[in-house]
Amino acid sequence: MPTRHHSNDTHPPRAEGGTDWKRTVLEVWEQEFLRKKGEAHRELALLDEAASAETKSSAGDKYETAREMFAQARVQHRKSLEESLDALAWLERQKMTPPAEHVRAGALVRLDGEWILVGPLVAKVVVQGVPVQGMSLASPRGQVLKGARVGETRRFREVAVAVQEIL
After folding, report:
1. How far is CA 147 from the centre of its chain?
2. Residue 9: is its pLDDT beyond 70?
3. 3-state class (DSSP) for residue 149
4. Which of 3, 12, 15, 96 is the most buried (most CB within 10 A)?
5. Is residue 10 a contact partner of residue 113, using CB atoms and an 8 Å limit?
6. pLDDT exceeding 70 applies to what percent of the chain?
7. Strand ranges (E), the chain
8. pLDDT tops 90 at residue 127
9. Are the beta carbons of 29 and 117 closer than 8 angstroms?
């Protein structure tokens, strides 16, 4: 994950209408998932190499244990690869999506002091020194904010959350 920067400035530089800022945010997310995809490919290649080097020894249990460990690791890295590919496909679709008027999947939302990208990405990235958190609409917070418009305030866990900007 990229280095986290702490900044009280949640007003990043952007063009009128925020399209450049949103495009930049999507590009940084894309770079992150391309990195994760490459990492998963490398790990799978290393596992294949290690598995082919593993020879059956007289200690059959040791060989079977190693095979099982390789299989479990492959499952984990294939899942990571699949998640990265799904995220990249989702991000590509967002490039063609018109600006949002309310909190929905694909919206980039500025709340009280933070930016949220609404969608299936739950990690955090730093874009031009500004943290952007991924949030699913299925999450408890996502459910509370779903459909909110600029200027609306919703309550999440007894705390008022104001929607300040939606791109």
Report:
1. 21
2. no
3. coil
4. 12
5. yes
6. 83
7. 108-111, 114-118, 124-127, 130-135, 153-156, 159-162, 165-166
8. yes
9. yes
- Return the residue matching tokens 């059956």: 56
Nearest CA among 15, 27, 14, 12 for reference residue 95? 27
pLDDT tens for each residue of 60-72: 566 677 778 888 8
Residue 99 corresponds to which tokens in the numbers above? 């600006």
Q: What are phi and psi of 155, to 5 degrees?
A: -110, 125
The token pair at 64 is: 């079977």
pLDDT at 2 over 60: no
Query: How far does CA 28 lie from the centroid of its chain?
Result: 10
Do the strands 165-166 and 108-111 form a parallel or antiparallel pair, or are they unpaired?
antiparallel
Q: What's the number of CA atoms in the CB half-sphere (13 Å) around residue 130? A: 22
Q: How confident is the model at residue 33 (pLDDT cuts 50, 70, 90)?
A: very high
Of 95, 97, 135, 142, which Cα lies nearest the Cα of 115? 135
pLDDT at 17 over 80: no
